[in-house]
Design goal:
mainly alpha; 14 helices; 0% strand
Length: 348
């Protein structure tokens, strides 16, 4: 049974990748561009050159964590589309810690900043979790609406009390001190946030598949009424799953600020929360699938800048491709059936 499930999951991921690349190739061809040359340029610049590869991995870092922001609630039968708002609130609270923690060494300051970011995102996830546990508001609606509120809160602080006085044209906070910045790998752009994402992916796999708490969470997602009759605290797990998801997105937010921007501003995310949601759904909440799909989405984002130069394709084409990925997500049940059929044929 496990082999069948693994084979079906592998075929599903392969189908998603093929569909994404194939549809984008058709999109380029319909607009008079050369899809084969586009693929060559993307691979040559973003995969075969170290600078380009580091850029892809830097874009992967927040996607790994925002995908987990959707994966934890999904295991409890919840749909968290609020990763973007949780991303911003994590960046906000983490920024407060970075600018106010007294002079401590980096190995102490950085964990405090990251913890503050996780707390900020967790609190933003706690709100829809509580509303769902009480039966007041569906978490899909509340998390979606909170996405619009979070940037407004960040904007208040960036334009108001935290605004750096020397930056009159483009409001931002003061720069983080060096001790509050995430270290990079040597002279590359790849920062510790990427490895933090991989670490939490492993922790997610271990928690879900190797602990009693993970079993309880999966039972709540599979059949909440049966879980309640067996004594599982369903409401508690609903809230906790949303808090864990929010903490992952918040951690992604402050890691992005502390490793890439070095100061809080409104333009810290090109939609990492929404992209992480897509990554998780395409991966089926599978840790290996999350790594693979994060790489594909990050490569697409990096390739958008490449194709602007080589084929004069506007970066908005990347948004078109992400919309196409959304259609792939919506077609997931059909692709899952096809994947299972292919897996059975492959086994035979």
């Amino acid at each position: 049974m496990d082999k069948n499930r693994l084979a079906a999951g592998s075929f599903r991921l392969l189908l998603h990748v093929v569909l994404i690349v194939g549809v984008f190739a058709l999109f380029l061809w319909a607009n008079g561009k050369d899809p084969i040359q586009a693929v060559r340029d993307t691979v040559r610049i973003n995969l075969l050159q170290w600078r380009g590869l580091w850029g892809v991995m830097v874009r992967m870092a927040p996607l790994l964590l925002t995908a987990l922001a959707a994966a934890f609630p999904f295991r409890a039968g919840l749909i968290n589309v609020g990763g973007e708002g949780q991303f911003f609130l994590g960046a906000l609270l983490g920024t407060w810690a970075a600018l106010n923690v007294p002079g401590l060494p980096q190995w102490i300051t950085v964990p405090i900043v990251l913890l503050a970011g996780a707390v900020g995102g967790g609190l933003w996830g706690w709100i829809p979790g509580l509303l769902r546990a009480r039966g007041w508001v569906n978490e899909t609606i509340s998390t979606l609406l909170l996405n619009y509120l979070a940037p407004l809160i960040v904007g208040y602080f960036v334009f108001g009390p935290w605004r750096a006085p020397e930056l009159a044209i483009y409001p931002q906070t003061p720069e983080f001190p060096d001790v509050a910045r995430l270290p990079a790998l040597g002279t590359t752009r790849l920062h510790v946030g990427f490895f933090i994402g991989l670490l939490f992916l492993f922790a997610y796999w271990f928690f879900i598949h190797k602990t009693r708490w993970g079993l309880e969470m999966r039972s709540v997602g599979g059949n909440p009424e049966a879980s309640r009759r067996l004594g599982v605290p369903v409401s508690r797990w609903v809230v906790l799953a949303m808090v864990l998801g929010g903490a992952m997105a918040g951690l992604a937010g402050i890691a992005e600020v502390a490793a890439v921007h070095y100061r809080l501003k409104l333009a810290i995310s090109p939609g990492y929360g929404f992209m992480g949601f897509l990554v998780n759904w395409l991966a089926g909440s599978n840790p290996v699938g999350i790594v693979l799909m994060s790489f594909v989405v990050a490569l697409i984002a990096s390739g958008g800048f490449t194709l602007q130069i080589t084929q004069r394709i506007p970066y908005a084409a990347v948004n078109v491709l992400l919309a196409l990925i959304l259609f792939v997500v919506l077609a997931k049940p059909a692709s899952g059936i096809l994947a299972k059929s292919l897996a059975r044929r492959w086994k035979a």
